[in-house]
Every structure is written in structure tokens, then in C-alpha cells.
Design goal:
Elements lengths: L14 H16 L3 H4 L5 H6 L2 H15 L2 E12 L2 E10 L3 E8 L5 E8 L12 E8 L6 E8 L5 E7 L10 E2 L2 E2 H10 L4 E5 L2 H4 L1 H5 L7 H17 L4 E11 L1 H12 L5 E5 L6 H14 L5 H16 L11 E2 L2 E2 H8 L3 H6 L5 E6 L7 H11 L5 E6 L26 H11 L6
Parallel strand pairs: 7-10, 7-11, 11-12, 12-15, 15-16
Antiparallel strand pairs: 1-2, 2-3, 3-4, 5-6, 6-10, 8-9, 13-14
Helix pairs in contact: 8-9, 10-11
Length: 428
């Protein structure tokens, strides 16, 4: 989940076909038609996972998990030349995610069973309802989910703005869904939440086709402003109590959203950096390399490559449409001109800034950056959490990228703190 990671990562036209392919594969496994199931595998997979081996694997799973019941959610990601499709398999005793790796030809190049998302204990389904909504209009309309507390309202409401990469509305990372945890937790405490699929998730190819005219405004800011406007017009929502919550890159951009939506009731910043994206990207890579392991040398090489690409941005003759690390130069140059903490200081609205002390991606250095500009403000609050990582999940010791692959939920006390702050001063 590096900030560097594939901001403009796009899915080809084959995206929806891969989802259909993944669902069909699960149907074949459920029917125990293993001969047909391997037909879409690449040569390496066909050799390693012959029909008899696939049958043996499936029988082992059902012996442990009970009979297969159904497939539920599906989501997709991309890393380099590979597409990942995750399908949640519901068995009698528990659920697992089937992770399918597709190559550029649309063949299955890898298949793994990984832990599935589990709802947090603080989520109470009887305390809220959810419905599908559309954010924005015209060519960039985005699908989203509005989570409404039970009751008549009007309710205060929060818009959730994603971190880097083409995230979905749940901000799914491995088996973890930070934004779903937030939505369900806050709704249980009387706060409505709007979350949506990021523009780079829905329209990645279209953005690339713009010819390089692309900044964080198109990636995140414009849609955050539109989502807040939608909430203000939604029945059951207190139009004067609409907030924006940004996580990671979303937290960094929250002040820019606030500057374009001055009617907001306030901003909530979770792990937003106050330093340049270039600096923090290299810092993250250095940290990962320091952890050692078999991939350390490859990461060290990536650090030097990254520095070389960033150095190109110092060339005044570099065309703004030139691609640098997968995005146009104008994307990076726009961020160079943006000081998040300074922009926040120019806003009059209340701000809540939260930071996990175990976070290696956005660190306490960034938290101090917010305090430098905002500590004298009576309507700005700061809080850190000793045990929390970048996803605001509890663990011990040094945080690592592998930590995100373990099932966990956003800490309940973070939900409590956000809800209490949002509802502060609200009529009883």
C-alpha cells in the first residue's frame, strides 16, 4: 500500500470479463467439474494443478470447512502485468477468499486461498441500513453506498476519501476493509457514512486516455466535493453537519477538499502526510528494505530507480504529459505546489487529526507537521494511538507490509473518538 503504488493503475477492457471468468471458475469447482475448471489455466498452472490435484484440494477444503454454500463478494486489483480477482467463498463453517491471479492473456496464473473479511464485533447490522447511490453526474458518475443509522434523523454524516491506488468503496487491503469498518461502526453510533468506488477504480483506462492531463483533483478531490454535496441534499441527513474523512492520501487531500467545499462542518484526517509524496515514497521504500528478507535487494534497486524518475521532475523542459512512475508529470508537479498543513491552517472549519504511532507509511513526523501549523487552533484536535498501524488496526512490534494480509479490523476506540467528535455540540 505504498503511496507510490499504481495511482493510475488501470484495468483493461478485460476487467469485467475476468470477474465473470472468476465466478465461472467457482461454479465449476462447486459442480466438481475439475476438468473444465483447469481449461482457463496457463501452462504452468495446468501442470501444477491437474484435475485430480484440484479435486483433492477442493475435497480437503470442504472436509475442513463444511459443504460449499455460495460465492458472495468479488473484487479486483492490479499489480504490474497481473490482475488479481478475489471471490469470497462461503462454506458451512466459515468463509475464505479465493485469490485468482490472471496474466495479460486472461489465463489463471495462480490460485490461492486466503482469509476473508470478518465484520468487527462493534458492527450491529440491526442499527443501520444501506442503499446504493450515485456520486457526481455525467461521464464520471461513481457507484457508492450510503449507510444510514436506524431512526428518522436528521443525522450527521461523513464522506470517506480513499488512500492511493484504485481503491474500492471499502478501501479493501488484503482481508481488511477499513472503510466498511468505519461505515458500520459509525452508523451504529448515529452517524451516516457515504463511501464510493474511486474514480481510478471505475474509469482507469478513460483517465489514461485523457492524454496525461491528470492530477489529484481528477483522482480524488472533485469526487470528494461531489459526495459531500450529495449528502447535503439527501433526506435524513443534517445538511449542516456533513464532514469529510480522508485516510492516507485522502487525509493529505482533505484540506484541498475543504478549500473547495467551505460549507463542510469539518475535516477528519487519518494518517495524512504533511511532507512531499516524493520524500515519503522513498522513505517507505527505505523502511521496507531495512526489514531485510529475500526481496530487500530488489527494493533497494527500486529506491534508486524511483529517485532517478523523481529527479526528472526538476527539468523545466519536461512535458507535463510525460509519464513518471506511471502517472503524468503534472500529477507530481501539482502535489509539489500543495502544502496540506498550510492549506488546513487557512480553513476556519474544525479539524480532527488522528495518527497511529506504529505507522511506517505516514509517521509521527507528519503528525508533527500538522501540529506545527494547527496546534494553536481551538477547533483543531489531535490524537495518536500507540498500538495502531496505517490501517488503524492493533498489533505489536514493527509494522510490516505483511501485517496487512492478516485479518483485522479498525480499532473500536477510533470509531468511538470519531463519532464523539462529529456529534460534539449536536442537539440532544
Amino acid at each position: 500500500m505504498l503511496i507510490l503504488a499504481a495511482t493510475l493503475t488501470s484495468f483493461s477492457q478485460q476487467k469485467s470479463d475476468l470477474i465473470a471468468s472468476a465466478r465461472s471458475l467457482v461454479d465449476l469447482l462447486a459442480k466438481e467439474d475439475f476438468q473444465a475448471a483447469v481449461a482457463g489455466f496457463d501452462d504452468t498452472m495446468k501442470s501444477a494443478s491437474r484435475p485430480d490435484k484440484l479435486k483433492e484440494l477442493w475435497n480437503t477444503i470442504t472436509a475442513q470447512m463444511g459443504p460449499f454454500k455460495r460465492q458472495t463478494e468479488v473484487r479486483k486489483e492490479r499489480q504490474g502485468p497481473y490482475y488479481f480477482v478475489f471471490v469470497t467463498l462461503e462454506f458451512q463453517k466459515d468463509s475464505l477468499d479465493l485469490k485468482l491471479v490472471y496474466n495479460g492473456a486472461g489465463q489463471v496464473a495462480g490460485m490461492f486461498l486466503v482469509p476473508a473479511y470478518k465484520a468487527p464485533e462493534y458492527a450491529r447490522p440491526d442499527s443501520f441500513t444501506e442503499r446504493e447511490v450515485k456520486i457526481g453526474a455525467g461521464e464520471w458518475v461513481l457507484p457508492g453506498t450510503l449507510t444510514l443509522p436506524a431512526g428518522a434523523g436528521p443525522f450527521p454524516a461523513v464522506v470517506l476519501v480513499h488512500g492511493s491506488g484504485p481503491g474500492n468503496r471499502d478501501e479493501a487491503i488484503g482481508p481488511n476493509k477499513t472503510f466498511r469498518d468505519l461505515a458500520w461502526g459509525l452508523a451504529g453510533k448515529g452517524v451516516a457514512v457515504l463511501r464510493y468506488d474511486k474514480r481510478t477504480n471505475v474509469y482507469g483506462d478513460k483517465l489514461i486516455a485523457m492524454g496525461g492531463r491528470f492530477t489529484v483533483n481528477e483522482e480524488s478531490v472533485d469526487d470528494g466535493v461531489a459526495a459531500a454535496a450529495l449528502l447535503r441534499q439527501t433526506p435524513g441527513i443534517d445538511s449542516k453537519r456533513v464532514f469529510v474523512l480522508g485516510h492516507s492520501l485522502g487525509g493529505t487531500l482533505a484540506p484541498r477538499i475543504g478549500s473547495q467545499a467551505p460549507d463542510l462542518a469539518g475535516l477528519i484526517i487519518l494518517a495524512g502526510t504533511t511532507r512531499s509524496i516524493e520524500e515519503i515514497t522513498v522513505e517507505q521504500l527505505n523502511y521496507i528494505a531495512s526489514l531485510g528478507g529475500p526481496g530487500a535487494e530488489r527494493v533497494k534497486a527500486l529506491i534508486e530507480t524511483t529517485k532517478t524518475h523523481f529527479a526528472r521532475l526538476n527539468d523545466p523542459k519536461l512535458p507535463e504529459t510525460e509519464m513518471v512512475l506511471g502517472v503524468p508529470a503534472c500529477y507530481w508537479l501539482d502535489l509539489r505546489s500543495y502544502n496540506p498543513a498550510q492549506t488546513a491552517a487557512s480553513l476556519k472549519m474544525p479539524i480532527l487529526i488522528l495518527q497511529g504511532e506504529r505507522d511506517y507509511q505516514v509517521t509521527m513526523v507528519d503528525f508533527q507537521g500538522w501540529k506545527k501549523y494547527l496546534s494553536g487552533r481551538a477547533n483543531v484536535e489531535f490524537k495518536t494511538y500507540p498500538k495502531l498501524n496505517h490501517l488503524f488496526e492493533e498489533s505489536e512490534g514493527k509494522s510490516t507490509p505483511q501485517e496487512y494480509e492478516k485479518p483485522a479490523n479498525l480499532a473500536s476506540y477510533v470509531v468511538d473518538d470519531i463519532a464523539a467528535w462529529v456529534k460534539k455540540g449536536q442537539p440532544k
